[in-house]
Specification:
The chain has 226 residues and is α/β, with parallel strands linked by helices. The protein is built from eight helices and eleven strands. One of its GO terms (molecular function) is antioxidant activity.
Length: 226
Amino acid sequence: MSDRHVDAPLQPGDRAPNIVLDAITREGKIALEDYRGHSPILVGLFRGLHCPFCRRHIAAQAQLDGALRGKGIESLTVVNTPIDRARLYFRYHPLPNLLAASDPDRISHRAFGLPNIEFTENETEWPRKVAMDVVMSMNVDMPGELPRPMPRPAAAEYLNNKDGYEMTEADQRMAAAGTGQLFGQFLLDREGIVRWTFTEVPDGGQRMFGAPSPQELMSAASRVAS
């Protein structure tokens, strides 16, 4: 797939690109083009598995797989993790029926218009640049997971320790290149047209580390399936 780049996240009514990626949970390639004319698909474009927030978002999407399939909608998880590392992770942390693909170069994220934020000393131009003092002021509140609202770096460290997640050299490379990568979920109809999205881009960063509720996502799925 050519490295297609758009300046802002795709919106409802836009045609999705044909991304082609290495499958993690089975052999071969996965291409969005294969679904066109056949079924709608929910595409989750996440950071690497080194990100504890995205590990939780991935698990949440996987938990809805059965309900989505009941409406005739497929689901694809894309992670910024090299395929060998990703396969090892999912071997020890299996998610039933998960269809996942590896995109360590974040080609699909650029194609869907998800920016990789540059962290700066004192300059903020959301969603392209953000100053570190702004980052440190963005507390993550995850009741039941965190003991209290915490700055993003401290929250990530706490959750990785809680999960017993040990960073490998591959994880460190992905984190260094894509620490600021924003994630998004895109629901495509059977013709490959975007019908619903959730991304971290809107609201000046207030959506960072958040996720749509299952009710919101399934409501959108019902509209696409009808």
